[in-house]
Amino acid sequence: MDATDQVLITDVLLRDGFQIEPVVIPTADKLRLAYGLMDAGLTSLEVGSFVHPDKVPQMADTDTLVRRLRPGESVALHTLVFNERGALRALAAGARHVRFVVSASDGHSRANAGVPTRDALARLWPAAGLLSEAAVHVEATIVTAFVCPFDGETGPDRVVEVAEELIALGVKVIHLADTIGAAGPAHIRRTVTAVRAAFPELPIGLHLHNTYGMASANAWEALRLGVRRFDASLGGVGGCPFAPGAAGNIGTDDLVNLCHQVGVATGIDPGKLVAVRDELRALLGRRLDSALSAVPAWPVALRPGPGA
């Protein structure tokens, strides 16, 4: 890796991490964790989703979180939007960074959005118009971009088709999600290469899950391919309630460790990140899923020495 390399890590704990928890995390606890992540050096957080609270009750306080965390300052606060109603709620809360979410596979789209992919894309046009008028920065995540729990492997051509539609909507960055954590480095290489070939100027990010223990290998392959944007969740917490078998995300702590080990900067203070992770463990009352959460501190080899 080039010594000047730096990645942008978006911590998705407050959204993807908590959406699958069996209990609703109090807003005050979410705010405390968010400020801890910011203090550790995170400049991008995914804080919630503008969906009906009956569908995902853990996201009912997204409006409050956006208002309380002061969007538009030094940290990008991303929220998910699926339709015009969600866009209106995002604008009312003062959101300045929004992500559309679309399934590459029809099977997952029906489970997640209730309609096939093409219909889910069509729903986004009114939302895109509202957000464009308000000069909101719009990104998108293509979920089941590699493997779908209902339809099997997703072909790169299909992902390119969906990306083309999203770009037409005004999307500036596209993240490819391994929603059920079933992809391997060959999947990452094949699909990232195809999307980059089709849209050479498009910034690409990855959203990785670790169901089969491949998230770090996939992140390493993506780094080798030049990807410099990643989603991660502190402690590896999270999963998709609409994808059978989906386990936690790649841990923010694990991803930071990987990047620092190979000489890629993150701007994140490992010591402060450990402190926030310990607070998260106490809040949830259980062991977390990231590899580093099994040890009490940062890897010995990466700790500053005396006088450093």
Description of the molecule:
The protein is of the alpha/beta class and 308 residues long. It has one domain: Aldolase class I (TIM Barrel, Alpha-Beta Barrel), CATH 3.20.20.70. The protein has eleven helices and ten strands. The longest helix has 17 residues. The model has no long low-confidence stretch (mean pLDDT 92).
Write down the Rg: 18 Å
CATH architecture: Alpha-Beta Barrel
Number of strands: 10
How many discrete domains?
1
Going by CATH, the homologous superfamily would be Aldolase class I
InterPro entries: AIPM/Hcit_synth_CS (IPR002034), Aldolase_TIM (IPR013785), HMGL (IPR043594), PYR_CT (IPR000891)
GO molecular function, one term: acyltransferase activity, acyl groups converted into alkyl on transfer
Pfam families: HMGL-like
Family: Belongs to the HMG-CoA lyase family. Belongs to the alpha-IPM synthase/homocitrate synthase family.
